[in-house]
Every structure is written in C-alpha cells, then in structure tokens.
Structures
1.
Amino acid sequence: MSVEVERKFLCSADTLKTLEEIGAVCVGQRQFLDQYFDTPKFDLTLKDMWLRNRKGCWELKCPTPVDRTEETSGEQSKAAALCTRYKEITNLPEIQTRVREVVKDVCERRETSSSQEDEESWLSKINLVCFAAFTTVRRSFTLEEEGVQIDLDQADFGYHVGEIEVLVPEGGDVQSALEKIERTARKLGELKRVEGKMNVYLKRNHPEHYAKLLSEHVL
Ligand SMILES: Cc1ncc(C[n+]2csc(CCOP(=O)(O)OP(=O)(O)OP(=O)(O)O)c2C)c(N)n1
C-alpha cells in the first residue's frame, strides 16, 4: 500500500514549454477508461472512498490521516493544503474487505456464502453500480531532480488538468513529498488550486450528489 500525494494545477498553452524549460522529461502518453463504483446511495464517496476499475485493475483510494506535526511553518501548512493525500489500495481482497466495512448493512441483506466470487458477483452482492465513466489521455513527465511525476490529463468530457504527484511507500516521508511538490509547483509558476476531473464530472452528471459532497466537506 502506498500514499499518493498530489497537487492539481491548471494547464495552459505554456505548460509544455515550461515543463521543457525546467528539465522535465516526457515518459510517455497513454489512454485509459476509468469506471467508478459506489452504492446507489453513494455510501463510499460520502466517506471519501473512491473505488475504480482502470484497465481491468481495481483501485481504492481512501483518506489517510494528516499528521499536523509534519508541518512546522505556516508556509508548509499552506503548501500542504493545496495537496491531497490518499492511501491507494490495489489488492482486490483488501479492497473488498474495506468496501464491505462501509456498506456492511447492504452486504448482510444481499450476500450469500460463496468463497469464490467473480467480478460481477462481488459488485452486485455489495450493490455497487458504476456512477462515472470517462476516458483520459495522459502525458506523463518526470522531474528527476525532485523525484516527482507530472501528468497532463485530458478527459473526454472536455476538461484538462495537470497533476504533480509523488507516491510515498506506507510509513514513508510525506513531508518530503509535500516539499518536492511545492518546489515543482514554484518552478512551474503554479500556485493556484484547481478542480479534479471527478469534481467536474460530478458537477455535470450528478449535481445533487456533488452538492452533498461539498456540504459534507468531502470535496
Ligand atoms: C483536488 C481533489 N481531487 C480529488 C479529491 C477526491 N477524489 C475525488 S475523485 C478521486 C479519485 C480520483 O483521484 P484523482 O487522483 O483525481 O484521479 P486520477 O488523477 O485520474 O488518478 P491517478 O491516476 O492520479 O491515480 C479522489 C481521490 C479531492 N478531495 N480533491
């Protein structure tokens, strides 16, 4: 399990040039479809848990506690507030356990005892349905001196966003990741906070749920 520390930024016409100027190296372009799942009542996302299938692989992003002692100055805490950090779980049995913990009432009603379950059966037993699906074209860059990855994403619903990202192994140094991201953002001349793809997707496709996530301070 690792923790993804990430800061999103607005891509402009100059972003590619700036990336080149600061020495970022393009490491490729790929395209993927993300399908996000939740119960019809959105039990997972209301707990800030994001279950998705990307290219046949399951991933669950869960909140991870923020250790405020990591931040020793006001500047550091401002920089940290611009970043998100989520635990990334990719092991399917562990994902299933975590998801069941949240939606256990639903599970108890629907589940039958079966040790071998295929993909559709675990989803339908826990009453999970796809609430968002979109394709992203992603160009990825690395900035070796900082050890960060920079992704430029173009979603098929007409939204562009950049991300500066560091994957921290569990128990690793989150503060150092925040500092690397902050330095990279400064090099990019990028200090503003922007919305992620999911925020924009939900606003357009599930406005009531989006409003609820805002009012519950999930987004
Ligand atoms: C700015 C911001 N972004 C996401 C969230 C929560 N959230 C909403 S959807 C969501 C899941 C998707 O996360 P994100 O990193 O935005 O997607 P993507 O860049 O495609 O995944 P990657 O390839 O990096 O793994 C999260 C964590 C938040 N609270 N604030």
2.
Amino acid sequence: MAVLSLCAGAAPAQSADLVVYGDYVLTMVPDEPVLENGAVVVRDGAIIAVGSRQTIDEQYIGAEAIAGTHRVVMPGLVNGHTHTAMTLFRGMVDDLDLMTWLNKYVFPMEGRFVTPEFVRIGTELACWEMIRGGTTSFVDMYFYPDDIARVVDRCGLRAVVASPHIDYPSPGFSGWDDSFAAAVDFVKRWQGKHPRITPAFAPHAPYTVSPDHLRATVEKAAELDAIVSMHLAEAPSESAYIAENFATTPVRHVQGLGLYNQRLIAAHMVQLDPNDIALTAASGVGAIHNPTSNMKLGAGISPVPAMLNAGVNVGLGTDGAASNNDLDLWEEVRLAALLHKVQTGDPTAVPALQALTMATRMGAVAARLGDKVGQLKPGMRADLIQVQLNKTRQLPLYDVVSHLVYVTDSSDVVTTVVDGKLLMRDREVLTIDEAALRASVARKSDEIRSALAATDDAS
Ligand SMILES: CSC[C@H]1O[C@@H](n2cnc3c(O)ncnc32)[C@H](O)[C@@H]1O
Ligand SMILES: [Zn+2]
C-alpha cells in the first residue's frame, strides 16, 4: 500500500528511438508559438511527442539523443519542384529566356547526355545537397524515374517522383506513346509500395503536350489515384502560344481539359490573371513558386500575395540546378519574402512567417504530402532539422523566425532527419559517400566536357 502511494502520479518513462532537443522548437502548427527549451520525440519513424525539455525528459527515454544548444528544431523543408539530375548541367547555360534555354540548349543536351547513369549520379548529387541544406522532401520530375526512386530509397529522403511524358522525343523515348506508357507503368509499380516515395505523372507543359494527351493523363491519374506534376503558366511565351492556339490562358486551357483538380501540383504559376487565381483557389491545385528560376529565365513574378489571399496553397521550389543554379531552399524562402515586397511596394507582403510556412506546412500541402510532413506534432512522420543560430554572423538573436528567413543559409543546418532516420549529423551526411560521389561527378562531367569539345572542334 505504502509503495503504491509513493509511486502514484509518476508514470513509467516510455521508450523512444530518438529525442531531438532545441533551445527553440518551431512546430509550424498554426498559431502555435515558438517553444523555448523543448524537444521532439520519435518512435518508429513518427513523431510521438513535442514538449518542454523537462516534460519530455520525465516521460521518455530515447535510444539516441541530439543536443539542442543554440539550435532550433523545425520541420524539414519541402522543395515542391525540381529536376534533381539536372545538377550535372549546373552552370552550363545561363542568362537566356525559357524557350531559348529549353529548345536551343537543354533539350538537345538532354538528348545527348541523359542516361540512367547520368540520372543516378545527378540525383545523388542533388540528394547530398538537399540533405546538407535541410530539405527533407521534394517533388522531382525527370527522366529514368526508376533510377531516381532507387537513389531516393538509398539516401533516405522523401520524394514525389514524377515520370515525364511529352509529345517529342526525350531520353529513352521516341515521343508521347512510349513515354506515357512508361509513366503509367511506373505509377502502377510504385503506387503504395514505398513509405517515402510517391510516384506521379509529369506531363511536361501545356505547350509540349497536346490537349488529347493531357486528357489521357487526367484519366489515368484518376484511375490510379495518382498525383500530376506539371509546369504551368511559367513565361509570357507560353501564354502567347496558348492564346494563339487555344484562345485562352494556360490555366483555363488545362482546366478545360479536366486537369485542374486536387491531384495537380502546378509549378511556376507566374502568368496568371485574376480569373486564373480564383480558379486555382476553387480547384485545390497546389501552386509551387520558384522565384530564383523565374528571375533567372526572365519569366516574370508570380502573383503570390494574390494567390495566398485567395486561399491557394503555395509551396516553394528551386526548379533544376540548370536554372537556379543550386538546390538551396533557404534562398527561395528569402526571395519569397523579399520579391513580393518589391513587386507590390508593400513591405508587409509575404511576411517572414508566411515565407517559412510556404517552405514547410503549406508547401507540404501543395506537394500533396501535408498528411505526412510539414509540422512537428504527434502523428506526423519525423522529418525534421536542426538549424544552428549562434554563428558570429547570426548574432544577436531576438527573433527565431526572422533569423530563419533573413539570416539563415543552408550551411547553418546541422541535423537532418527523415522518417525518424538520421541522414545528417553535425553536418556529416550519413547516407551518401561524398568522396565516391565527387569521383562520379568528376568522371561524368569530364565525359560531357570532352563530348562538347569534340563537337565544337568538328564544327
Ligand atoms: C518532362 S519534365 C523534365 C523536363 O523539364 C525541363 N525543364 C526544366 N526546367 C524547366 C522549366 O523551368 N520549364 C520548362 N521545362 C523545364 C527539363 O529540362 C526536362 O526536359
Ligand atoms: Zn521545372
């Protein structure tokens, strides 16, 4: 009796796989303030508790713990639009408009150089950069998606891997028929098969895929309950093409074909009129803002404040490293917070917390991952990062959110966890052999350089 009364109220500690501490915990749960001196508890790849350090230490015993002094714990970033393997084209062609860049340089280079091996090396290089920079999930759209998926499996990140289909010849395909058949096959084989990989369809854009073919994508995506990821309303040239051929806007063109629904992740969304924005909000389409790529290709400025006001879920993306030229999502966060202040003349446009929300909770919803990631709360998958906050260039610290948006860069990320697994500890990537990767990149880029030099010599 006496023993029982002594123990009353002291529940036994529960076991956990991992406890990640932070001087600050930024859960990104709506209206939840930054928690000081807290921790996140992980078991079986999921978050099971978030709370003050004292409460967590009383209630849980973690098999592994990551200290949190001078660090904030927050959800990992979501890159809503990229072409990972294009890291191998980084810096090859700059300072061109979209159509010249694509038609004169990128498509021909892809025809010459993109092979399964190219994709494996380029994707691994991208995954290394994303793990180092605190991106824990991404939406990819590139050739040889099986090879992409296998790299994602190995490196431990979470991804929507979209299989491209396009009306023209592309790496491995002669045109629409075989690229679409391969996409259907890819989605069927991967749907529901891997805890971190979601397959999807990727019709390239409304100017490279005919209306009939877009309708076929709509039908198959509905039949297989699959996501569709596509470039949309990116540049004035696209709007001009759609106006000339279909007498409408890119958004209303794909809406008329049945594509404009909750399955769609629409990348860019720059050239929009007020009707397009209202349609986007009503349809539940996820919009991905890629400020660096849009600026670099001179595509324009996406009307992000208007989309947000209308209730559109807007996420952030880097696009590929051939038009960015890196995969650092912190730069997109900061540009999202700055660019729209310039565009509107309103310094309250896209405030810091809004920009961070687009890279986490809202970006996850836009990327169709919102039921799994983007917030630190029990039941979500454990995709989280720690960011260091006390480097000399970061001093002093008054406001964590302000620091994350206006001061942080990818080199400040010290820990990356996906699905409860540590992918980076103290800036060391644990799932990729960096030296071997560097050797592969050197070999592949030497091959490309020599091939380009040989054609230059011949011409
Ligand atoms: C079929 S999806 C892959 C395809 O898309 C090309 N691409 C890369 N960036 C962009 C962009 O900003 N707009 C349009 N197309 C883009 C990439 O090179 C692949 O060919
Ligand atoms: Zn793109």
3.
Amino acid sequence: MTVVQGVRKRYSRTGPWVLDGVDLTVDPGVVTVIVAGNGIGKSTLLRLVAGASVPTGGRITGRPDTVGYVPERAPAAIRMTARQYLGHIGRMRGLPPGQTQARVDELAERLSLVPGPDVPIASLSKGNGQKVAVMQAFLKPPELLVVDEPATGLDAPARAELAAMMSEAEQDGARILLSAHESAVPNGKLYRLLNGKLVPEALRGMRIALRPTRPGLSSAGLAAEILLEEPGRVVVRTDDADTLLLKALADGWSLIEAVS
Ligand SMILES: Nc1ncnc2c1ncn2[C@@H]1O[C@H](COP(=O)(O)OP(=O)(O)OP(=O)(O)O)[C@@H](O)[C@H]1O
C-alpha cells in the first residue's frame, strides 16, 4: 500500500497551505477517490502521490516502481509524434522497443487515437492529446495508477475505455487513486478535500465529533444541532456535513470521528 502521512504543501514560502496535514492510504482492491471543487488541491495531492512533485512537509511511503500518472492536462507543446514520445517513455521504464511499439498500437486502437500515433502531439486535438497522456500511464502495467479527473477532455467512448483499462489494472492488483468533481464521482472509497485535509465521505449525514484546537472556541459558531458538549469534545448532527466541516475546520475545530 501507498501511505500518505501528515502531508503539507504550499507553493511558496509565505503562500497558503494548499494541503495541511493529509493522511491517506491507497490500498489495492478498492479505488480511492478524492472529491472537491475547483482549485481546492486535488491535482496537488495527486501529483505528490504520483511522485511528480515533492511535499513541503510530511511523507509518502510505499510508492512502487511503476507508477502510471495521468495528469489533468496533457503536455501539448510536444513536437514529437506520440510514437516517438511513448518510445522514450518505454525506454525510461525499461520496456523492450518492440514491446513498446506493439503496446502503442494496441492502446491507440483501444482509445481511438485520431488520426493516430504518427503525427506530432502538438497537432492533436485536446482530447486526443489527453489520450496520449493516458497511453503513457498504461504503457507498462502500473502498480500504482493515479488519474486526475478521468472524465476531463475525453469523449464518451474513450471514457468508457479508460474505465475498462482501470478496472483491468485493478484486477491485476494495481492501487488506484482518482480525483473527481462532484458532477462525475466514480465508484470507490470517497474522500472529500476540505481546507487542506481529507475527510472520509462516509461521514456525510452522520453525527460528527469535533475537538477545538484553540481555547475560546464556541460551539455556537458551528451552526448545527449540538448533541453533546464536554471539555475538548463536541458532538453535532447536521444534514449538510460538507458545509459544517468546511466552516468548522476553518474556525479551528479538528475532526475526531463519526459517531454512529
Ligand atoms: N504550480 C503551482 N504554483 C502555484 N500555485 C499552484 C500551483 N499549482 C496549483 N497551485 C494552487 O494550488 C491550489 C490548488 O490547485 P489544484 O490544481 O491542486 O486544485 P484542483 O482541486 O485540482 O482544481 P481543479 O478542479 O480546478 O483542477 C490553487 O489555489 C492553485 O492556484
């Protein structure tokens, strides 16, 4: 398994913390899905897990040798053809050239890459460029697959093919981490990214126990039904756990647990 422990990330020394203590385990056998709106930090977290950027704090352990990473935006300004580009990627991953080229043809056909792998990537449409990004992630069977918003940019047949490829990888034992917007949430173990932290989606609609992280915090500010209040612990019930958690975390509460 790949384990994220207390990971923090900001993009400049004085900038805001985009991730502020993220804990996550990406296990085989279940697809892990990070859900959030625009600009909350999904891509930031996925890049870190994939090893494409480094955390400012905390650590990520158990990343396997073969990581397939599909970024949200494929690099467009590449003059090489898809076949040349994927040939380089194959060499970097230790694949024999013949095997790489056979795989390029197979993936180009599965994803309906138009007009094909032998034109410059820069000349491809956005969606077809995204297919090349998918192809590089699947060139060698990934042990960890990280896909940033799989629905973005691809047409319906390509999305269905990508879903099939992901489920084949899952059956082969890959660990899978996806990000998604609320409008296109895939099946899996869902986590919501709120104020730089991950909250398991199973907490929605449940009773929630919170701990104040600074003195003087009043439970009145939680704007929810207070079920129990004791020193260091408040249990609330709400129909809108997202909004409650968003405000509570911002105000200085920390999540203890969901109380069934
Ligand atoms: N390379 C970067 N340099 C500076 N700030 C960045 C960089 N990448 C992301 N950010 C900032 O980090 C925050 C989170 O961005 P991120 O792309 O991770 O969000 P996201 O949840 O994936 O958004 P979207 O749904 O729009 O793709 C944003 O405020 C963004 O401006």
